[in-house]
Every structure is written in C-alpha cells, then in structure tokens.
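Example 4.3 (complexes with small molecules)
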Amino acid sequence: MYTGSCYCGQVKYRINGPIDYVVHCHCKPCRKVAGAAYYSAGFIAHSSFEITSGEGLVKTQENIWNQQNPNVKRFYCGECGGRLGVHISQDQLLNIAINTLDQELEYDIGIHINTESKAPWLKIPENSEQYRQFPPDMAEQLQRIVHQ
Ligand SMILES: [Zn+2]
Ligand SMILES: [Zn+2]
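Answer. The structure with zinc ion bound is encoded below.
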C-alpha cells in the first residue's frame, strides 16, 4: 500500500496495490505541466486508487494537447495547484505523479519515454531503458495493469 498527497497536504490519497509500471515522460506537454525536465508517472488500476481527504479540492483538466483522446484528464489540487496525476480511461486506469508519494521507491524505477523531445541539457543515465517515442509494448503493459 502507498499513500501520497499534494504540495499543501490537503488532498491525500491511498493506493491499495502495486506500482509496477513507471515511465519518465519527456514529451512537451508533460514537461510543461510538470514544470520540470520530465514527468514521472506510476500507472495503477483505478480500482486500487482512493482519495482519502480533500476530495472537494480536486480539479481536473481536459487533455488540451490531444483532443483526439478526451478520456485523458489531468487532476490536481485546486488549492495549491500541485498536480496529482492523470486519468487515462474512465474507471480503469490512471497514473499518479510518483513524486507525490509519501514513500520513497528505493528500487530502480522507470523507463524514459518520448526522449526525442527531451530537454537538450538533460543527460539520461546511459544504462536506463529509453525510447525516442512511446515504447512498442506500452499499450500491452497498460492492459495488464487494468486486468491484474
Ligand atoms: Zn494542495
Ligand atoms: Zn508525456
């Protein structure tokens, strides 16, 4: 089990399950919304996710960068603006901003994706798995999470 919260701490959540698929996304929208070199996302089944306090503060935003996929909605704390994650498909899948977790993931997490649009000044460690675009098995991985 994992717990996490936004920057101001008023929105808290719990994950009743594993986080075993993590991506560090270097695409332009992720860099913009994270205000950082990349967005680190842990994918989980929606059924394992629960907001435990501050639900009324949670705001969502439509996927303004890719209107072909209206089910993708970012969610964040309306009070502090801290982003929490992204709903990928209604009731099935979401990803959580890994850095909002209360626990530190000690193991080597994540693959770097969409590196073709990475910040030019950023050096990704050579031994980490990386893809210029989306990894070919990503859809498969996400299906696995929904059905586990
Ligand atoms: Zn907050
Ligand atoms: Zn991205």
